[in-house]
Prior knowledge:
Oligomer: single chain
Bound molecules: ligand C6P
Amino acid sequence: MNRQDFPILEREVYKRPLIYLDNAATTQKPRCVVDAIDEMYYHVNANVHRGIHFLSQRATDLHEAAREKVRAFINARSTAEVVFTRGTTESLNLIASSYAQAFLKPGDEVVLTVMEHHSDIVPWQLVRERHGITLKVVPMNDAGNLDMEAYHSLLGPKTRLVCCCHVSNVLGTVNPVRDMARMAHDAGAHFLVDGAQSVPHFSVDVQDLDCDFLVFSGHKIYGPTGIGVMYGKEALLEKMPPYQGGGEMISRVTFEKTTYERLPYKFEAGTPDYVGSHALGVALDYVNAIGMDRIAAHEQALTQYAMEQMAGIEGMKFYGTAKEKTSVVAFNVADIHPMDLGTLLDRLGIAIRTGHHCAQPLMARCGVEGMARASFALYNTEAEIDAFVAGLQRVVRMF
Ligand code: C6P
C-alpha cells in the first residue's frame, strides 16, 4: 500500500532489497513528510510565538495548525489539551513528575501492567523514590491478555492512577483500555494510556476511551523523530504544575514570583520543535488520506498471514497470541539466540528487532532474556513476508 511514497524502501542493504520489518521501533517517512521538513527550513524558518514578523507568524500558524490536526486526530475537546513533547518518553516523564507533585502523597498507589515499556515504568519508580508511593502491577496470562480480575482487585481506595499501554510493543496485545478506564474511574483513580503502539495503527478517540492522559510519538506514525504528544484532560492539566521552566511557558516573570502561561503552553518551556510539529501534522494528513481503517485492515491481514507462514517453522514459539492484536509478532525459534536470528536476517537485507525490547519485566514474565520481533506497517507486503519467512527458514537450517 502506497509503497512508492517511501523513497528509502527502494534502497538496498548488502546488495539486497531492503525488507524493513522494524516498524514498532520507528516507521519510515513518506516523501511528503521529508518535503515538509525541507520546506520549513528552506522557506519558513523563524521562531514561533515571539516575533511579529512575517516568517515568525507563518511558522506559528503552521505549528498551531499542527496542534489542531493532532486534536482532531485523537478527538480531544480542545487544543489546550494537546501538549507537544519530544515523544512518548518525555510525555510520560512530564506526567509522572507533574502529576506526582499535584496529586500523590506517601502511601498512594499507582497501578502499572506487566507489559509496560520501560518508559512507563522507570518514571514511576523515580516518583516512588521521591514521593513514597507504592507501585502495583497487573499480571497477564500466557497468551498475553491482562488478568482483568487481578486488575479489579488491585484497584482500591489508595489507587490514584492506572497506567497501561494501549498496545504492547512486544506482544501486540490490544488492551481493553476503555473498560479499564471505566473501572479505574469507578475506583476514583485517573487513567493514562500509552498510545505509542496504538495511535499509528488504528483510530484512537480520547473521548470515547475517556482516558485522562494519552501519549504517543510522532516517529512511529510516519512523522519525524523528536516530536510527540501528551494529551491530558484540561481540568487535570490546570491542576498540574509546569514540568520545566523557561521561555514560552510564562505569563509574567519577576524575581519574586512568576505566573504561568495558559494551557497548553504552560507545559512547553523553550523553543518548541515547530518543524517537527508541522511535519507530524503532514504525517497525520497522510494517514488520514489513506484512512486509518484501511491501514488497520491491511496490517491485520499481513499479521495473520505472517503468523500462519511462520507457524510452519520447526521450533517456532510466539509471544503474544491474544485475539485482539496489532501488527507486532515476537518470537523465538528453538534455542537459537534471537541476536543470531536478527544478525543473519540482516545479512539478507531483512531488518527486525531483537533483544528485550525495553520491556525487561515482560521478558522475565515470559521466562526469556530476549526475543526476535517483526512488526509491520502500511507499506509492507505479502511478498516481503514470504522473503522474511524464507530467510528465517534458511537461518534455522544453518543451526
Ligand atoms: N518502543 C520499540 O522498538 P519513544 O522512544 O519515546 O518514542 O517511545 C517509547 C515507548 C513507549 N511506550 C511504548 C509502548 C513503546 O513501544 C515505546 C517505544 C520502541 O518497541 C523503541 S524501544
